[in-house]
Amino acid sequence: MKQAYSTVMVLVAGILAQAASAGTVPEQAIKDVEAGYCQKALAQIQPLLADHAKDAEVQYRYGQALLGLGKADEAIAAFKTAVALDPDNGLYHSALGGAYGFKTQQGMADGSTGMFAMLGLMKSAKAEWESAAKLKPDDVDAHVRLAMYYIMVPGLMGGSSSKAHDQEAIIEKLDPVQALRVRANEAGHEDEDDEAVGYLQQAVAQDKTSDSLMALGMFYAGAKRYPEAFKTFHEAEAKDPNDHSAWYQIGKTAGIAKANYEEGIASLKQYLALTDLPDTQPSLAWAHFRLGNIYEAQGHKDQAKAEYAAAGSLNERADPILIAKLKDAQGRLK
Known about the structure:
Oligomer: single chain
Number of strands: 0
Low-confidence stretches: 6-11
Distance between the termini: 34 Å
Shape: globular
Radius of gyration: 20 Å
Order of helices and strands: HHHHHHHHHHHHHHHHHHH
Mean pLDDT: 91
Strand content: under 5%
């Protein structure tokens, strides 16, 4: 099973990109959260809660900022308040569903959520996305999330290829590039690699951004087609020099593939030199961890230990997944 892009990335990025009418929330805060600068946005939005706790837009933007910082439980609470205050707003339902989905993904990755709890979260996510699609039929993100749910979830939990295809037909009319990427995920889930690549290549040809190239590169990396992954990430970097995620992915892939070490090191050092990194991009702590992976693969234990230590000291959000990976890595180097 391979995916063209991370489901977590889809959940968070889609929620932060959603627009809603401005009001009490400062315009700069809205721009910051939509650009992924969630800590900056949070500093502007949080003080508003004292006097505007019953303003649905304030709660919604508060939830966006919290989710971008990985604070799933707090984001869920904020989105639930927004929905309660304005139950007919499809964007709020879509965001709440995304937060439930994000918490499920977190729990699966770090083992913090039991199976029954995850089933409940996914059931809640599905219900919110269905409400969003009904209340705001032109919300492509809600349809994408529903399609991904039907693709990824077993039939006993509500997964359905026919329902996924129904959603894909809707997405095709709203955003053909997104539809191709969803179909690529479905093909990858069924281990139909050539079909998935074909869909993604069609998406690349139509996409004015570097997003589809990044999706293709990540698919290649997941399929262990590393030379193609490196090539595609470089193409993404060339297409959009301001999208620095390609540097991180090159470094990550070098460590996993145990190849192209110098290229991976150079890319990660470029990434680590960034001074204005959006909160929704992989953190500098993760970049140090990936650099440590490369040094460890090369047999440079002292350099690897130094990078792992740097990752631990910079893990300001106490990312539980990174903490677990650092524990394993440091245990190997004792």
